[in-house]
Design a protein that fits this description.
The protein has eleven helices and no strands.
Length: 277
């Protein structure tokens, strides 16, 4: 099965061009805008993620189908209630996946590529991981709960399509009820910030309610500084994709105790023996 988001890629690229031109003709000194090498890296990461992700979806479909087959009930796709349940279940699964990928280093090693740019624009949305295998466990319960696999995959694509539009500085805060319930460019700018106050905040996909309920929400206040707490200063897609795996492996090899080796893999990024985690 080809993910539905694939069909939106030409529109995504066109919108990247439009946004880049908007900076050319309507510049804003307070916004980072575009940088050619950075954008090329983001586009390369996006292309690579699809080359790897499309065949991986075949594995995903088989596993979803297997769990769906053994589920004691099958929810009807013809029911609006099934679609409503799917919407909230998928969004909660995304929140759990996203939070785990920021708080467990071996998962962060996959997700860090998306946060590696010091710019924030629509091309940043395309800077995706080349190791999508780490996402799989977080959606398996939906198939086991009787949600049809094709519906799960479609809703994942809808969520990713929505999140593409969050990666922009060109949109200020929206109408207050929208900001209250939904993830917005303002909320997601916070998520991409390396400022201490913004670290590990605003994990939401389409909704922001999980962050509000689980106390991981932070409103946009001080100027966002994009990128990592320790930026990698490279435009090489291979290094962007795998640098944290290499760093984690180096730490594991240098550790003297098994307890520390486990900590370097499964404690939060930046953890070290004797540090708070």
């Amino acid at each position: 099965m080809i993910p539905a988001v694939i069909y939106a890629i030409p529109a995504f690229v066109l919108l990247v061009v439009v946004e880049a031109l908007s900076y050319r003709f309507l510049p804003d000194d307070d916004e980072r805008g575009y940088e050619v090498r950075d954008t090329a890296t983001s586009l390369s990461m996006g292309a690579g993620s699809q080359v790897i992700g499309v065949p991986w979806k075949a594995v995903t479909v088989v596993l979803y189908a297997g769990l769906y087959a053994v589920s004691p009930w099958h929810l009807p796709a013809s029911s609006g209630w099934t679609w409503l349940l799917l919407f909230f279940a998928d969004d909660l699964a995304y929140y759990v996946f996203h939070r785990a990928h920021h708080r467990v280093r071996v998962l962060w090693a996959s997700h860090v590529a998306h946060h590696s740019s010091v710019h924030y624009n629509l091309s940043t949305a395309l800077r995706q991981s080349w190791t999508p295998m780490t996402t799989l466990p977080f959606w398996l319960p939906l198939a086991l709960a009787g949600l049809p696999p094709w519906m799960i995959l479609l809703q994942q694509s809808i969520s990713l399509g929505y999140q593409f539009f969050l990666h922009t500085e060109r949109v200020d805060k929206l109408w207050r009820p929208v900001e209250l319930l939904f993830n917005t460019p303002s909320h997601h700018r916070v998520h991409h910030g390396s400022n201490n106050v913004y670290l590990d905040r605003n994990y939401g996909g389409i909704l922001i309610i999980w962050d509000r309920l689980l106390r991981t929400f932070e409103p946009e206040g001080e100027r966002v500084v994009y990128g990592l707490t320790k930026n990698i200063a490279t435009y090489n897609p291979l290094r962007v994709a795998f640098h944290e795996y290499a760093a984690a492996w180096h730490d594991v090899r240098s550790a003297r105790r098994w307890r520390d080796r486990v900590g370097y893999l499964f404690r939060p990024p930046g953890w070290a023996p004797g540090a708070e985690g």
